[in-house]
Design goal:
Blueprint (H helix, E strand, L loop, with lengths): L16 H4 L11 E9 L2 E10 L4 E9 L4 H10 L3 E4 L6 H12 L3 E4 L7 H11 L5 H7 L2 H14 L12 E4 L10 H6 L15 H5 L5 H12 L5 H16 L1 H11 L5 H9 L5 H22 L6 H18 L1 H10 L2 H5 L11 H28 L7 E6 L3 E6 L4 H5 L4 E7 L2 E6 L5
Parallel strand pairs: 1-4, 3-6, 4-5
Antiparallel strand pairs: 1-2, 2-3, 7-8, 8-10, 9-10
């Protein structure tokens, strides 16, 4: 019979992360928001909690709004949730207006029971999810509306079914006054983000500006476009950094080279946290850490007008990161066979353990036999190694040989050779006398 092994929704893709993002970058975040609306003193009070399970982010806000819910719409545009939970019955007059708003913003609506919005449960959930108890968590725990929203989210997302969620969420208070208010019509009319993944790249502002080398850079650009700043000092700060890059082509070039080696830290951290990390992930982090000195050197060589701004924003933090990860780099260099990593094999150094040394000797012997058999096959087919015939390592067949499709006739006329697969880049085969 059938058995469910994973569960997800548009706003919660954590269990499908390895499938969806193994070969594709996660350029935009996805999450779920829970709302609680009450009416008092002539206005609506809206409590809002947003959870992004992949990014381990928990955002909250409480605001006063009119019957048109313009402020709420602006915040939903900024955080861009995929789903919204709310306990408002269809008989309430607010239900119709909110439903129309969610439809405009293309947010899936998940009706909830009022009993799921339990403040006491939310308070206990907050202490289990938050990375640390500070002023931000204290502020959230003092509002029953937001705690009730959190309780509904924890139940819907089943956050405690995964122990890796405990004490991992970063709390963030949404501050609407810091950003320009954009409603759904303005956001859509300005073509800020692509309406559909299949749209041409340059059909949106994000597509035009997105020349980021890293997934986290793409996500940050997405957030900045959805949250235009109002603070003149912050705007000038960003402009200064952009101008520094514009006027120094060498700085741009050096950073471009280094950033191409930076992986998606969020994804790797989560894999390690869930006990699914491997040596390849360790190697990716190591190679990223090796780029820090190059990035620092690029920034330190800059001596233009905005040297102070670059120092405050980048150099100080990068130097701290370099010191923090020095021990990790030493650990990788001591235990991981970096030469093999360059060849796509991720293994521990054979000198690290006696048993590994014995296994390495056996592998060396097998590799010699493989090379001998490869040379014999090349002579048999009268093919030049590296050009006419190549030795491949396949995840399906192991070590195997490959020739171009036009040389396939030579294989069919030889009974000692067995064809495994025909691909665009050639024909994969092995020998019957000794399977490579």
């Amino acid at each position: 019979g059938w058995r469910r092994i994973a569960k997800g929704s548009p706003g919660n893709l954590s269990q499908f992360e390895d499938v969806l993002f193994s070969n594709h970058e996660m350029s935009q975040s996805s999450g779920v928001v829970s709302l609680s609306v009450s009416f008092s003193e002539g206005c609506y009070k809206v409590s809002l909690v947003y959870v992004d399970v992949l990014m381990k982010q928990l955002s909250f806000c409480e605001l006063s709004d009119t019957e048109q819910f313009c402020s709420l719409e602006s915040i939903l545009v900024q955080i861009s949730p995929k789903e919204v939970l709310h306990p408002i019955p269809q008989t309430n007059p607010e239900h119709s207006k909110l439903s129309q708003m969610f439809q405009r913003l293309k947010i899936f609506v998940i009706p909830q029971k009022s009993s799921d919005y339990h403040p006491e449960k939310g308070k206990g959930n907050l202490s289990k999810l938050a990375q640390k108890e500070d002023g931000v968590s204290a502020k959230m725990s003092s509002h029953d509306g937001m705690l009730g929203c959190l309780a509904s989210l924890v139940k819907y997302l089943e956050l405690f079914s995964d122990e890796s969620n405990l004490h991992q969420f970063e709390l963030n208070e949404v501050s609407p006054h810091l950003y320009m208010r954009l409603d759904g019509a303005a956001f859509s009319g300005l073509n800020v983000m692509p309406a559909h993944p299949s749209e041409p790249v340059f059909s949106s502002l994000w597509g035009i500006l997105n020349h980021c080398f890293t997934p986290q850079g793409q996500r940050l650009l997405s957030n900045w476009l959805k949250q235009p700043l109002l603070d003149c000092n912050k705007i000038r700060e960003r402009h200064d950094v952009v101008e520094a890059f514009v006027e120094d082509s060498q700085l741009r070039q050096n950073l471009s080279v280094a950033l191409k080696r930076i992986p998606d830290f969020f994804r790797i951290a989560k894999k390690v946290q869930r006990g699914k990390g491997n040596l390849q992930d360790c190697y990716k982090l190591y190679m990223a850490i090796k780029q820090i000195p190059l990035i620092l050197d690029a920034f330190c060589k800059y001596s233009g007008t905005f040297e102070t701004a670059l120092n405050c924003l980048f150099i100080t933090s990068l130097r701290e990161f370099e010191q923090d990860f020095a021990t990790y780099s030493e650990l990788v260099e001591t235990t991981v066979d970096l030469d093999k990593c360059d060849l796509g094999e991720f293994v521990i150094k054979h000198t690290f353990d006696e048993d590994l040394g014995e296994l390495r000797s056996q592998l060396d012997g097998l590799e010699e036999e493989i090379e001998t058999e490869f040379n014999r096959i090349a002579r048999l087919l009268n093919a030049e190694k590296g050009k006419g015939i190549k030795l491949d390592l396949s995840s399906t067949y192991g070590h195997c040989c490959r020739v171009t499709r036009k040389d396939e006739k030579g294989l069919r006329n030889n009974k000692s050779l067995q064809i495994l697969q025909t691909k665009k880049d050639g024909v994969v085969f092995t020998s019957s006398t000794s399977r490579l």
